[in-house]
């Protein structure tokens, strides 16, 4: 009897995992996504990345610094019915004009498609000024994509402060997923043009209490040498050098990226 019950539980879990898997695939395949964003899927691997982090459709998830909402277009419909998505970024009342512009642009994007974004919640995350993300111990997963290098402007202690604020909102057992441009381990830190040492990111996250759980090479790009005059922005999609060596940078593709999973201990 015990074996039958266990088999039933395993089958039930498998069915639910398959349903979650199908829901994620459907969100990525949605015709509501911006065509230019869809074109970047081969370089960004959203299905593999989010699956690696362990996302489920019934989770409360925070997306930090969503930028133009590339991942928001996937996360919002995926979490709409059973979970919750909080996008935490710049405030429209920020003293910084650039931050206000980002906030207003995101507001326009969300308002333009209420069917996709109508249940998305907004929060303020503007380091080092404001960290009004979510209540303490309330979030199953925090995700951030290619942002941590910006938080290093305030030095080690500033980065620790930001990571500590993130740590506060994650539930015990919850996940922090980080993707960022990876600086080769052989290269000295310093003026790195948007690239970061992977070991440094792990060290900083663990210094505030997170435990390093796993890493994935799904977003690795061995063609990226990380030594360009205009840093990572030399590569697609920015192509900061414009027509100078354009074909060279297009052939390299988007940056080599670390994909790291951390857990808040129970």
Structure explained in plain terms:
- It is a single chain.
- The protein is α/β, with parallel strands linked by helices.
- The chain is 41% helix and 21% strand.
- Strands 1, 2, 3, 4, 5, 6, 7, 8 and 9 form a 9-stranded mixed beta sheet that branches.
- Helix 1 crosses helix 5.
- The relative contact order is 0.12.
Topology, pairings included?
Layout: H1 2-29, H2 35-38, H3 41-44, H4 46-53, E1 60-64, H5 72-79, E2 84-89, H6 97-112, H7 114-117, E3 121-126, E4 130-132, E5 139-145, H8 148-151, H9 155-169, E6 170-183, E7 196-197, H10 198-207, E8 211-216, H11 246-252, E9 257-263
Parallel strand pairs: 1-2, 1-5, 2-3, 5-6, 6-7
Antiparallel strand pairs: 3-4, 6-9, 8-9
Summarize the structure.
With 266 residues, this protein is α/β, with parallel strands linked by helices.
In CATH's first tier, which class applies?
A: Alpha Beta
Q: How many helices does DSSP assign? A: 11
Beta-strand residue fraction: 15-25%
Name given to the CATH architecture: 3-Layer(aba) Sandwich
Write the element-wise H/E pattern from the N-terminal end onward: HHHHEHEHHEEEHHEEHEHE
How many DSSP-defined strands? 9
Number of self-contained structural domains: 1
**What's the CATH topology name?**
Rossmann fold
Structural class: alpha/beta
How far apart, in Å, are the first and last alpha carbons?
32 Å
Give me the Rg, rounded: 19 Å
- Name the helicity range: 40-55%
Find the CATH superfamily.
Answer: Vaccinia Virus protein VP39
Which stretches are poorly predicted, pLDDT < 50 over at least 5 residues? Answer: none
Mean pLDDT equals 93
Query: Which descriptor suits the 3D outline?
Result: globular
Biggest sheet architecture: 9 strands, mixed
